[in-house]
Amino acid sequence: MSASLNRCVKLLASTLLPLTLVSTALAQKPLQTLLVGVDHRTVTSLNGPWHYLVDQSPGRALYNDKGEINDNSYALNTHPNIVGPHNLEYDFATAPTLNVPGDWNTQDPKLFNYEGVLWYQRDFDFQPKAGTRTFLHIGAANYRSHVWVNGKRICDHEGGYTPFDCEATTVLHPGSNFVVVAVDATRLVDGIPSVGIDWMNYGGITRDVSLITVPRAFIDDYDVHLEHGATWQAGNITLTGYVHVLDAPAGTAVTVSIPEAGVKTTLKTDAEGNAPFTVKAARLSLWSPETPKLYKVELASGEDKLTDDIGFRDIRVDGTRILLNGKAIFLQGANMHAEAPVRSGRAITDQDVATIYSYLKEMNANFVRLCHYPHDERMTRASDKNGTMVWSEIPNWQHISFQKPEVYAKDVFMLKEMIRRDRNKASVILWSVSNETPNNPTRTKFLTDLANEARSLDPTRPITSAIIGPKIIDHKMDGNDPLTAALDVVGQNEYIGWYEMTPEDADLIQWSFPNKPVIMSEFGAEAKQGNHGANNQRWTEEQQVYVIEHQFTMMKKIPQLRGMTPWVLMDFRSPTRNIPKLQDGFNRKGLIAEDGKKKAAFTLFQKTYKDHSVGKAE
Ligand code: GCB
Q1: Which residue, 323, 378, 519, 597, has fewest beta-carbon neighbours within 10 Å?
Q2: Homologous superfamily of domain range 218-313
Q3: What does the pLDDT look like over 35-68, one tens digit per residue?
Q4: Measured in angstroms, how far is the CA atom of residue 198 from the centroid of ligand 1?
């Protein structure tokens, strides 16, 4: 076993929790209604204070003895009797509140390490309108969620980082209504990710919640993109895609217009509610990091209307090159967890997003790998606007139950949710199916199938994965993991000079890779900001720089290197990182500390990226 894989196994063992014995994974339903472009619709926000009650672990009020969901406990939102019998001893009305969206861990010190079930409740006023439907939209809640409106369960969802919509039309009434959401953050062996993770398992309703009212038949999904594989030169641009109108009879009219580009086309839905289109758009300028042009794309069908901001560009792989609008590019970026700078906790606000991108811009980055799960939609929206290219990943992190078909089904579900939410974002140029998984036939088959699934869901973007762990023999590293056959772009993680060998060894390493573009998707070393010392002294800013400089020497010898993302832009919470005074519960491989103070390695990247001194576009 290589040193790095050995490390992964140790990490996994150290993060197993006794409470993960509870494993009542939900059977996955087909992808339920999932509205695209919710942040561009008029919605009623349900953000704000929600009452909460902590369920006694492992979910005594939520699960019955068989592990099934109990609909007759806190979901009913009853109040204790002053007189007469009672046996349900809870009361949301007098319970404290948590802010939604937000992780619970950083809002109440008692909940800092809590990984069980927590119940949320709030009242809201509502006036139903004839001929409409209403959905409750949750941007993300980690990890399993169960939602009741006025005591009726309207949906269940598994997955901590993707959005879901629950139809509430038939359970809403005029006047005061209430919603109860039970969120279970318990890690599951058969979950995605599984139990061993190197980040904080922030629990709760971590993203926006809203009510969306739409006509009976409405636009739930759409895809508007540059025709892939076509000639895209100015004056000869073709847009293609589809608009899907849920519950529309065949022949329903749909219009797609982009006034600024002189595009207007009227379509008709087929029997499935789908209206595919192809249209010439001669006046269109392409999206790129230098000119991140977005167009107002207006979609309409019957009474439903929606305007999205969409950029158009072509991304493809040609041999070992990555081409953006036909031009070879080199990706200079950083990895980033969804960790809020300075204030700490899950990144969810516009301010968090602005700070993260100000760091990336200051570093001269044109790329970010959003690890290890889809981040808040604010991030990809901001990338679209500011021209940062994005690697988006589903949480297949290291050890997943690859042998189980039900886990594969969950994975496909998450992949669909990720792609559906962000397929209209020009900035997203890569879908990643996994990070650092063990090289064996079961995992290779699982992830090859998943990569093919991703390709069939979205044939316009290259597919990647971050791979770890070739054996190092005589300073030779074989980057031909069998999974690379299923990828368009190979991501390679390595920590030479930190987890294995010495920094100087990196200079001697010779990599061999398949004939595909390679991104060094993780590398780096750990340092406590403000800790100074000699080059060979661990945890110092000097050593972090020294290790990375040697990793640069190694990378410069990889002819098909087309991108690099150091681990990691910012120090992030990871409860497994327990060296007092140095780590204190943080992974310290950041170029910036969690309080925003930059380390010397940040300046190294700033200069390297300015000079383009590591790696070439072709
Ligand atoms: C990795 C993982 C990342 C860890 C990092 C580390 O290889 O992909 O999630 O946080 O190493 O610091 O060990």
Answers
A1: 597
A2: Immunoglobulins (2.60.40.10)
A3: 999 999 999 999 999 999 999 877 889 999 899 9
A4: 7
Q: Under CATH, what is the fold of the domain 3-215?
A: Jelly Rolls (2.60.120)
Which atom from ligand 1 is nearest to the alpha carbon of 524? 12
Q: Ligand 1 centre and the CA of 450: distance in Å?
A: 22
* pLDDT surpasses 70 at 188: yes
Contact 118, 182 (CB under 8 A): yes
CB of 84 within 8 A of CB of 211?
no
**Confidence check: pLDDT of 20 > 50:** no
Q: Which atom of ligand 1 lies closest to the CA of 589?
A: 12
Ligand 1 centroid to 596 CA: how many Å?
A: 21
Residue range 443-470: average pLDDT?
Answer: 96
Distance from C-alpha of 185 to C-alpha of 492, rounded to nearest angstrom:
30
Helix (H) / strand (E) element for 412: namely helix 405-422
Distance of alpha carbon 181 from alpha carbon 74, whole angstroms: 10
- What is the whole-number distance in angstroms between the Cα of residue 274 and the centre of ligand 1? 42
Atom of ligand 1 lying closest to residue 197 CA: 9
> Quick check: 8 pLDDT over 50?
no
CA of 439 to the centre of ligand 1 (A): 17
Domain ranges of the chain: 3-215, 218-313, 317-610
318 sits in which H/E element:
strand 315-318
Query: What is the predicted pLDDT for the residue at 26?
Result: 38
The ligand 1 atom nearest the CA atom of 372:
9
**Atom 9 of ligand 1: nearest residue by CA position:** 198
What Rg, from alpha-carbon coordinates, does the chain have? 25
**How would residue 79 be classed by pLDDT, with cut points 50, 70 and 90?**
confident
Distances (CA, A) of 434 to 10, 363, 394, 489, 589: 19, 26, 6, 13, 21
Q: Name 157's Cβ contacts closer than 8 Å, sequence gap at least 6.
A: 138, 141, 144, 145, 147, 164
At 393, the pLDDT band (50, 70, 90 cuts) reads: very high
Confidence class for position 233, pLDDT limits 50, 70, 90? low
Q: What's the gap in Å between 397 CA and the centre of ligand 1?
A: 10
Options 3.30.230.10, 3.90.550.10, 3.40.50.2000, 3.20.20.80; which CATH number does 317-610 get? 3.20.20.80
Ligand 1, CB within 6 Å, residue ranges: 198, 372, 435-436, 468, 493, 522, 567, 587, 589
